[in-house]
């Protein structure tokens, strides 16, 4: 699973190869901690994670602050090497594979061939989350495929690459607002929206403070547990009656607290999807 792509191929990168036992949830924790110290690109594989950092941002002691490496419940080994500048794009393209969901939707990069599916989405992720490879994004795409978006208003909160907003637009949503607090995600989503020809999508940089009194028929939020717990009351205020909230970014054990927060705010649970302990859930207002 490719999580991010660097914004440029002009820099020299250091590649770390981490071998992890057991793989989950250690790989997700490792990626989060590495991101905090400057790593900007990650590729998950069958036995661990490849992590990339620009050479100019690297230092000998960069892993000292990575707490998961010291956790007694996980066995993690690592090695690193310098990636020659001219090999970076080829390395990333080799690891980023297109995906298909239900043979109806494909998510691919611009260098992949067009796929014969109903919804062919072209994403260049750069430093943004949302290629469809991660379980949470894939399950949210599945929910969108299974729902009728004809003439609906949609909010994609924490939009990353914009892939969820793009599929909603392709499924005939009237208009879609895509919001992310990260500048890279904001810029990347704008590029991907234009690349896929979705003029009904408006992309904004910010958080729930932007919502004001806007109303939506559907809200998509693939973020994380703590942000969801904080913002669900805001989402509900911005949902039309009988509106739907699709959420993901948390584990199966988090479902009781997510559902409790939704119930407190008048939302009724309808359905879960689950893959490798990750969960996506549907709630109706």
UniProtKB/TrEMBL annotation:
One of its GO terms (biological process) is methylation. SUPFAM superfamilies: S-adenosyl-L-methionine-dependent methyltransferases. It catalyses: L-lysyl-[protein] + 3 S-adenosyl-L-methionine = N(6),N(6),N(6)-trimethyl-L-lysyl-[protein] + 3 S-adenosyl-L-homocysteine + 3 H(+). Keywords: Cytoplasm, Methyltransferase, Ribonucleoprotein, Ribosomal protein, S-adenosyl-L-methionine, Transferase. It is found in: Cytoplasm. Its EC number is 2.1.1.-. InterPro entries: Ribosomal_L11_MeTrfase_PrmA, Ribosomal_PrmA_MeTrfase, SAM-dependent_MTases_sf. Pfam families: PrmA (PF06325). GO terms for molecular function: methyltransferase activity. S-adenosyl-L-methionine binds at residues 137, 158, 180, 222. It comes from the Bacteria. Belongs to the methyltransferase superfamily. PrmA family. Methylates ribosomal protein L11. NCBIfam families: PRK00517.2-2 (NF001785). This is Ribosomal protein L11 methyltransferase. The gene is prmA.
